[in-house]
Each structure stands twice: as C-alpha cells, then as structure tokens.
User: What shape does this take?
Amino acid sequence: MTVWDPEALGRIQHLHLVASRVVDGLLHGNHRSTRVGPNVEFADYKEYSPGDPIRDLDWRVLGRADRYVVRRYEAETDLACYLIFDASGDLSTGRRSSYGRPPLEGSKFGYALTLTATLAYFLHRQQEPVGLMVMGGDGLRNVLVPARTGRTHLAQIFGVLASLVPGGRAELGKAIATVAPRVRRRSLVAVVSDFMEEPEGWTSALSALAKRRTDLVAFHVLDRQELTLDFEQPTIFYSPEGGEDLVVDPVTAAPDFAGVVSEFLTEVRGAVVSNRGRYYASWTDRPLESVMRPMIHGAVDKGL
Amino acid sequence: MSLALLAPFALALAALVAGPLIAHLSRQKPNTRMAYGAMMLLERLVKRLRRRRRLREPLLFLLRALLVLVLVLVAAGPQLLLPGEPPPVGGSGRLVLIVDDSMSMGLSEDGSPLLFHARDKALSLVRSMSPGVRIGLVTIGGEAEAVTQSLTDQPGRVIAALEALEPGYGATDLAGGLKAARQLLAGEPGEIVVFSDEAGPRTISDAIPELELLVEKGVSVIPRTTRADEPANVAVAAAEYGDGLEGGTITVRVVNYGPAAVEVLATVGLPDDSEITAFVEVPAKGDATERFTVPPEVPGGVAWVKVEDPDLPWDDARYFHLPRVGADRVMVVDGDPGPTPVRSEVYFLERALAPWGGTRQGLLPEVTAPGGVTALDPEVHKVLFLANVSDPGPMAGLLTEFVRAGGGLVISMGSNVTPERYNGPLRDLLPATLRKARNLVALDADSGVPLKLPAVDEPLFSTFSRSGRSAFSRIRARRVMTLDPYEESDEVRTLLEYEGGVPALVERRVGRGRVLLLTNTIDADWGNLPLQAAFMPLIQRVVTWLGGAAPGGGGDRAEGFVGEMITVELGEQDEEPVVLGPDGQEVVAEMERAEGLRVKFRPLVPGGYTLTLEGAPPVARVAVNVDPNESDVRPYDDLRRVEAELDPETWLQKIDLGRQLLAAAVVLLLLQALLSARRREE
Assistant: This one.
C-alpha cells in the first residue's frame, strides 16, 4: 500500500464521508450507548458522546469546568473491538464487479469495505479501541491492525481498507482463531464476509470465540444477482479462488439453486446464532443504514 | 399367447440402437465464461443434480434404446397370437348342444341350480338360430345320451327337451357326450356347444381323445361354461366299518371343497333305523375324519352317513355295507333232552358252540324243543341243529324255506330218528334217503370204526392244518344211520366217511343254503365224536361255513354308482330275485344266466338296493352312491384352453401390433425428448 496512492486517498475520503454520514444519522437523538457495562471500578474519564448514558455524566466536572465528561469503569476499558474483513477472491465478483480494485459503490467488495469502515468509524465515535483483521486479499494479505483508539489509528484502518484488492482464500476459521486470543470478555468481534466456506471449517473457531463470551456480530454480505442466478444463458462459471469450472444453465437451474441458497443461509445463520452471535444478512442492494441500524440497536436480524 | 413376425429380417435394424448410445454420449458446451462468487453453492447444486441425473441418464438411454427396438419391431410386422373368440355358432348349419345334467350342475347359484342357468343359455342359443340350422341335443349326466336321435330342423323339439331337463345324480360323461355328438353329426363338420361347469379332476382330460377326433373331422367344440362364482360343497367321501370298541367303528371322511372351513352335522343311520350324530369340523379345501362307535348288536345291511350341506344336497349321503354286529345265533332243537342236562342229546353240542357261555360275540346257541322251531327267523338265526328229533314233519316247510334263503341245517341221528318220518317230509333237504340204523360194532364195545381223515382241500376242513387232522384219527363210530346209495355231484357230496366207506357227513346244497347230514349222534351214544378234541373246532367251523350265505347281514354285497350299470353275480340260483330301490319300489333289472344268475340294473338314485326272493331275506344288498368325482365342484381344466390348443387355426386370434407399437414409439419419443430437455437444462 502506498499512502500517497491518489486512488487510495480518494477511497479513504469516500469511506470517511459515507461512514460519518451513516453513523451520525444513526446516532442522531440516541442517548444510550449500546455498550453498557457493569460498574466495577472507576478507571478514568472520557468525553461525552451521543449514546453514552446521561447518568454517567460527571456533574461535578460539568459544574467546575463546563465540560461533558463521562465516568468510565474498569470493565469498560481496554475492550478491544476487532473487525474481521473478508477480502478473498469471491468478494471480487457480483454486481458491477471488476478486476483489480472494485468500486466502493455497487460492488460486493465495495459494499463490504464500506460496511467495515462504517463499523470502524462507529466504534471510533464510541471511543472504543478498534482493530482490523483482513482475511485473504491480493498483495496485501492477512493484515492485522491491533486494536487502538484515536483518529490516527482510525486513519490507519481506513488506509488499509482503501488499499485492499480482493484475492486468495479467506480461511475464516483461521482468521477468527487469530483474533480470538486478542479479545477480552464482552469485546465486540464483527465479521464481514460472504461466508463462502463450508461451515465445518469455521464453526469450531466461532464456538471458541463464543466461549470467551465475546459480542459476536456477523454481517453476511450477499449479492442478489449471484444468489438468484440472474443470468440469461448457459455459462461456464469459475471461482476467482480457483477450482473446477462448472457449466450451468442459470434459467433452468435457478429453482433448484434457490433451495441450495436457502439451505446455505439457514446454515450460516444457525451457526452464528447457536454461538450466541447476532446475524445480519447484508444484501448489497440494501442501504448500509438498514444493515447498521439493527446492529446498533442490538436487534437480531430475523431474516433476510 | 405368442408373437409372430411378418418380416423377421427387419430385426437387423436393431443395430440402430447404437444411435442413441452416441447421442447419449455427445453434449454441447457453452461459450461464455464468468467468475462467480458463490461457487461453493453451485458445487452443492451440481452434486444434487448429479444424484438426480444418475437416475435419469440410464433411463434416458433405456428409453432411446427401447425406441429403436420398437421401431425395428414395427418394421418387422409383429402379430400377437392370442387365444381368441370361438368360431361362430350355427355357421355350418349343423349344431349339437351338449348339456351337462350331472350332479355337480345341481350346485346352487343365485338361488337356482347351475343346470337351469346352462339350460337358459342353451334355450336362448336355440332361439337365436336362423331357420334351417339342424340341431341335436345330448345330455352327459351319468351316461351320455342323445336326447334327439338325429339332428332336427324343428327347434321346438329341442326346446321342449331342454325345458324338461332336471339335475340328476350322475357323473359328467363329457367324453361320451362328445362321441354321441359326433355320431349325430355323422362325420360332417359342424359345431358342438358344451354347456357344463367342467368340474371334476378328469372331466376334460378324459375327453381329449374325442376332442382330437372332432378336430380332425372339422368340428368346432365351443364351451359355454357355467360355473358358480365361488364353488362350495361338503360331501361324504367315504364311510367304512372296521374294528373298534363295542360293536366296531364306522370311519367317515367328510370333504369340504369350499373356500371356507365349515362345521357340519354328520348322522350315521344303521340298518335298525337307529341313528348316531356328531359335529364334524372340516377345513377349507380339506377333509376331516370322524369315527362313530357302533352299538354291540346291530343287524347287518346297508347303512348311511349324511351331512347337512346347503350348496349341493345330492351328495350329502353315502351308503355302505354294515355286517351284522353281535353274536351269530344258532338254534339247536333237542330231540332227546334226557332227565338231566348231562344226559341231554345236545349237552356236548351246546358247549362246543359256546365254550365260555353265551357272549355278545361268537355264537349264541338257543336250545329248544321241537315245538320251538316256529321261532326260527331267517333274519336272526344262522344255523339250525336238528338233534335226534323224532318227527321233523311239522317243521319241514319251515326248514326248507330257511335253507333256501341261505340258512344252514345240520341233522344228526339218534335213537329217535326213523327213516320213515324223515325221508318223506325232508326229501327236499336230505342229501340221501335214510335206510336204517346199523351197529358197526357192539354198542358196549370200547372202540368202533375209525373215521377217515378229512381232505384239507375241502373248504369245510381248510382251517385244520395237515397235522391238525390227527385230531380226527381217534374218532370212532359204533353205530350209524345207513343211507341209500346216492351219486356224488355238485349238489351232494360226502365230506367225511368211516373206514369201509360208510358215509359220516354228507352235504347237500339247497337254494342258497346247505344241509349237513351227520350219520352219527351229536352226543356220545353212537360214537365218541363229542369226546374228541376235534369236536369243538369242527362244530365252530361247521357253523361258520354254513353261515357264509346266511341271512342277517349276510348274502352278496355289491357297490356301484348312480347311473352306471351294476351287475350282481348270484351264482346258482333257481328263482329270479326282485331288485328293490331305496324307496321299496321295484327297479327294472335284467337277468342273465351264464355260470349262475347275473342280475343287472341301472340305479337312478343313491341308496341301499336289495335283491330279494319272496318270503326270504335279501339275497344281495347293493350300496349305490354318487360318483365322488362329481362332488368336487371345482374346475380343474378349461375346455376353451384345451380346444384352442387342439385347434389353433380356428381359435387363435391374430392381432396386428404395428399401430400399437407405433403409438408406443411416439410415446417413447416424447418421453425421451422430455427427459433429454430436462437433462440439458441441468
């Protein structure tokens, strides 16, 4: 990654704009943090931000210094949040996909990237330490950005995201296993992926994560054209991650394929929910707000 | 059913089956190639479709191969040869109806016998015949009979004969019926329509030679089978008397030809009109055996067993011979009772007849004075001993009647016997004229004239072995009744004689009985016969031998079936007996004399028939039953099938399969196209 890559800089700016618009819109008028921890032991102060509970405002500081600060407790400090981002080759396909660096809008990869950036921005706004784990990727592979706070750190995450080119295999189980030792109890781990790996490969890692009582959130990135086989003529399909070609007539295979897709979505959702995670189907043709809102409000996606 | 090909060479086209195989293996590939992010799901889909295709593709190949084969068959011109419809009736102008009026046609179906159903079919056939068709009628119940002596062009006669038909007791004589029909057709082609239930294990198979003969003559035999939907019948298949407790056992076998097990009431009727009943459980399509104990004393005769069966009542009874059960009664007329029993003329005889006293088995002597002879009953008594009776004159007629009816008479001498009183009245019975009593030695002498040993080939002495004859060697006579010279013949024979040629025991046959004249006394006054070891077995044997043709269950026994000619051989018999049916009415019988009298008659109903002489017990009894084969109402073979086999040219139906196979090819084509399209889609 070149920091001065003009395309990357443009993408960073775009990501920042989108993320801040989405987050600000979602947090407008919301005074309760989604991350309420038990009061164990006073640790330090932090600037008040929308969503923080009003009761945690230190009124004395407000009276003396006219500053809005919130008292923080030991249980809420150092809760490293990790975003696990799938940059595997499969993400490079889908509607308006292109080789190289897919556009941020309209493509499956771009959608996932923007979603991850928005999540990072949201957590930054919550003054949570945010880390990033990238699965797969072409050139820049399997990047791990440790969880920290601060604008500089957020810029670094945005920089990494903006520089990513999809490629290779995700190896979801391995990525989750890498992150798991770095998170503490009640830490948030958000996985943004198309989960195009056989569940046997990653459900055990997910279970290990669940045992640590982390707050697991799964954003299942889905492309409607791909999953409805919305193509017109018999085609040789191949995977960017390698493997055999398959000759399929999309028109006639669509009814059977719908069954396969439905089973797959049920499998993934089941695996996440059974490990006390929150599952959100993230169709690329839906606005980011509609995906983020239930996550921020702690609701669980009940369906597609 | 078989298949014939008009163009068998077309089968070479079967090589075209390789076509589908090549088509099956060829497949087109698309040109477009595209990166796809959900290949994992696509692979899952392909796996699923492969599983489905694994079933579908062999089916597709099979359909295509089948299609080619069917087309090849169409080219070969296939014809299906089926047992077809019978030839048209009346086409030749000569028609014979064979109507089965046997017992099995009495089986009830829809409330009336099968015969009536068959008769209705026959009537409607006759009425449907165009004028000019000459028709004949043959019935095959019992013995086949041509009802019309020739073919007639007056259907009214045939209709009248058909309407008069009633089911009988006879067995099915299909072979005879076909022969009679052939004779009616007089060697000309024609049609024979058979109205029968075709029941019985041998009905069809016995008729095959006659069927073959008819096919040769160009005659079509067309069955119009009339059967019950579910034939059922219970019948008595066998009844037999044998040893057992008390008076013996009657073993009865009941057969159930129906599809369901039944419990029937079986009743045994004895000749004395007493009855024994029992319930018999008979399994479906099986049989059961039941045993009935006979009372200690029962007169002999024809007994019967009956079961209750609503389906076919004609064969519910079976008649069989029951011998007289109980002791054989022997009348002994004591002509010299004496002051004490020991001094009685018949003291030794009575003990020889019943060594262990009177019992229910063996012999039961009834000792009487001459006046008691009036109690002589040919139905009860087997043998009469006349021992030293002074005047047999008053009883001569009774004795003659008794002997002629089959009874045995033994006349022994003594001091009371005078030739004058015997020779006249008993001239029809005595084997020889009595001359006078004569001393062979002094009466008080210790010994006398010895008896010659008997010939063991003589039936009377056949029970004595060669060594056993020695028991006769010590018999001596001191005095005998001498006889006038007589000629040995079949009627009169000397059975025993003393040394010197003096007759000791002479036999005469009279009617159905025999008379034995003992020239000595039956006690020890004139000799030592009763004191010898041979006496008792000799007396027992004499009674058995004489009683062989005695009344009381004796006489000839014969058996036969309803409808068939029954012949009873009576041997030498002067008088011609009368045949009486079960209802006591006289039955028409033929008498033939050839080495004895032969009586022939044809019974029309089952039951006990008797051949009697006036005033005498029956000389023979005949148990007449229905043919057990007729009780089996199940069909064993199919006349239609047999006739179609024998005359395939007339019967086989040829169906051209070209159109059907072409239609099948179209269906196969559509099916394979549909399946092929599905395969391509996947």
In short: Chain A has a mean pLDDT of 80. Strands of chain A lie at 42-47, 69-73, 81-87, 130-136, 144-148, 188-193, 215-222, 235-238, 246-248, 278-283.
